[in-house]
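Hello support,

Our group uses your service weekly, and this is the first time we've seen a run hang past the timeout. The protein is Epoxyqueuosine reductase. I'm not sure whether the cause is the sequence or the server load. Input pasted verbatim:
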Amino acid sequence: MSDFETLAHDIKLWAAELGFSQVGITDTDLTEHEPKLADWLAKGYHGDMEYMARHGMMRARPHELLPGTVRVISVRMNYLPEQAAIAHVLSDPTLGYISRYALGRDYHKLMRQRLKKLSDRIEQAASELVARPFVDSAPVLERPLAAKAGLGWVGKHSLLINRQQGSFFFIGELLINLPLPLSQQVDQPVEEGCGKCVACITACPTGAIVEPYVVDARRCISYLTIEQDGPIPLELRPLMGNRIYGCDDCQLICPWNKFTKASQEPDFAARDNLHAPELLALFDWSEDYFLKQTEGSPIRRIGHRRWLRNIAVALGNAPVSPTIILALEQKRLQDDLDEMVLEHIDWALAQQMAGLAKVGRKTERLIRAVDKGMPNHARFTELK
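Update from on-call engineer: The timeout came from a worker crash unrelated to the input. Re-ran successfully.
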């Protein structure tokens, strides 16, 4: 066994010791993905994420990102917390649904630190190492690289799927200059397992998966609640339900996620204040309290104004409630709200008031029906 073969073997052992669920090694050739990337950008599917277009085809050329790179060490780490309570939160419109990946500590820093430790370990064995870790932090096509390294396949929802783990995991990579051998048994693309299934496409609340493997970010709830800084399009607001940070619907419906295993990483455990939070309680958070409660969380980066915007939409989608109407009216009286947040609060109020008027009309019909002697069971039907 050559020195590099031994090193490749050891790297996988070291990665496991650092808590990574799987590791694979691949080359940097993503030529086949360049036309797809160019087409996606040309159609404007990246929305306001101008950084997606800023670096052009560099995303498909890791060797340009770090000159001298010949191999990519791709890793994944499971994140789904124990007692995820997904169905409970999504089925209760008075609660705020937060994508399960964001319930614990910010994965970017944690995984990057682990990758840096892996890099340091490799350098001890190969002093000529030049390496750079990335976790959703650079212009590189992470999912195609992970697929080439054998970590799974890119599903029709554009996320990576693993036969043993489903898709509830993070991925990251370490770009290196060492020509590590690629295992013919392990470091190879796996056969796609989506087949004719289109469950993720039909389950998307906003129709963001416009064709298999292609997502129009401008319609994606994750983009709308996290990446988009301005107003959320009017026609999409009612479709968002109570999702206030991200969306997991395309993963929840995926048959492969029946194999998902809970994460053993303590830092990914769900925080009590985010696990199944009441919308009205979250809406009451001041900016200082928001920053304190989201310290070390990926949620913090969207800022308090987007946080209020997202919750306002969810409150507008909630069942008619005098308590919600009062909370919205009190919030809009604050003199420190910007116009964008205020507009979403006004929209939510309009939704609630429209619902209240509808209930009023049903009540009027019931009163008239009682006067005419409608049977009890019929009255109940009228109120439904």
